[in-house]
Design goal:
- The protein is α+β, with helices and mostly antiparallel strands and about 80 residues long.
- It has 2 domains: about 1-40, Ribbon (Pemi-like Protein 1, Chain: D), CATH 2.10.260; about 40-75, no CATH class.
- It has 3 helices and 2 strands; from the N terminus they run H-E-E-H-H.
- It has a two-stranded antiparallel ribbon.
- A hairpin with a 2-residue loop joins strand 1 (about 25-30) and strand 2.
- The radius of gyration is 19 Å and the shape is elongated.
- The termini are far apart.
- This is AbrB/MazE/SpoVT family DNA-binding domain-containing protein.
- InterPro entries: SpoVT-AbrB_dom (IPR007159), SpoVT-AbrB_sf (IPR037914).
- GO terms for molecular function: DNA binding.
- Keywords: DNA-binding.
């Protein structure tokens, strides 16, 4: 785990290892007990396409599978 401190102007500098691994753009999410930095890909649509490239089902099939699993889990 790394540590970072705000400077006098309120800027936070992330360690080089973090920037090299996750990039330079982040979405800041406020949680009840802190904050979370979510890396934003330079091209979000390409990132989504890559993430789901191996999915062979349609969106409707995925929805139906999720619905069936939820009903099974609920005991119906």
């Amino acid at each position: 785990m790394s540590e970072a401190t705000l400077d006098a102007r309120g800027r936070l500098t992330l360690p080089k290892e973090v920037r090299e691994r996750y990039g330079d753009h982040y979405h800041i999410v406020q949680l009840h007990d802190g904050i979370k930095l979510i890396p934003i890909d330079e091209n979000p649509l390409d990132a989504l396409r890559s993430e789901f490239a191996d999915v062979e089902k349609t969106a409707e099939e995925l929805r139906q599978d999720a619905r069936t699993a939820a009903l099974d889990e609920a005991g119906r």
